[in-house]
Amino acid sequence: MILVSETNPFITSSSMALSNFNTVSTPSLHHSPTITTRNSETSLQLAPIPETQQPLSVSIVEKTRVTGSNMYVAGQVLITCHSNTGSIPIQLNGLDHIQNLRPRSPYVIVQADGYVINTSHFEPGKPVACFMFDINTDTSQLPLQLVAFWKCVDGISYLIVKHSKNIDIDPSKIKGSVSVAMEDQVNNVQSTPQGVWDTVKNRLTWQISDLMQQYQPDSPQQRLLAKFYIEGKGSSQPIYFNYCLEDNTLPNISIQSDAVEIKQSIVQSNQVVYM
Predict the structure, then answer these.
(1) Which stretches make up the Muniscin C-terminal domain (predicted)?
(2) CB neighbourhood size of 48 (10 A)
(3) Edge to edge, what strands does the sheet with 186-192 contain?
């Protein structure tokens, strides 16, 4: 049986206190700053919101890929036509930081003063990727910054994940999780704040809401703590940060039209892996 406890694993007893992380008799904490990414088929996505009374609805989707301190963003502007209304002129705003904007023919007609959506090529109610774009930036744009530390001794693996939020992003717009999957046989798990232990996948997960509740006005950085009781001596494992950020794009791109009202929805999502 695997037991899960919300007890702080670093203060329950003197033998397992956080101060022991720096004792001479045990290995010191270490962390690997390398960040890679993996595609996630279960990444959260925001579908275009159909509004039958509006000719167009728009969904702007960004997927981020992180390598080291660099972040690459691949974006799509998905447009859904709810009726065939001919040609609709539109303007794209917030293009200053975009590299390689690619309108797609025959859905988009490029003109000197903007773009025209040719609704005759759309299937009503079906979203179409009308624009593609790229952005190169750095990881300071992520909604959360994380640094993981491990200490593995015989029978126990300790984990600290320090995290800080991006003050420019509304916390209520962030959804997702931070998780770690253990390769070793785990007999018991303790975590603070209390996470969810999946006995089938051998995975501990904290929701982003758990992290947000830790922040205080005078404490911009907080930490997640976990202790895994295992057979033998374990090793450091990747930390997965899956997120979905609504109503926010890196270049603040938006679409408007003087001819019709447009309903917009925006999502930025990614899975960042801290090795």
Answers:
(1) 76-255
(2) 21
(3) 3-5, 186-192, 221-233, 144-165
In the structure, how many helices (H) and strands (E) does the chain have?
1, 18
Name the H helices within the chain.
Answer: 208-212
Backbone φ, ψ for residue 189 (5° rounding):
-135, 135
CA distances from 150 to 86, 157, 158, 169 (A): 60, 7, 6, 29
Whether the CB-CB separation of 238 and 273 falls below 8 Å is answered with yes
SS3 266: strand
Q: Are the beta carbons of 151 and 27 closer than 8 angstroms?
A: yes
Quick check: 126 and 108 in contact, CB under 8 A? no
Say how far apart CA 132 and CA 130 lie, in whole Å. 7
> In the chain, pLDDT over 90 holds for what percent of residues?
43
Of these ranges, 1-5, 6-10, 27-31, 91-95, the one predicted with the greatest mean pLDDT is 91-95
Widest distance between CA atoms in the chain: 75
* Domains of the chain, each with CATH number or no CATH: 56-140+246-274 (2.60.40.1170), 143-241 (2.60.40.1170)
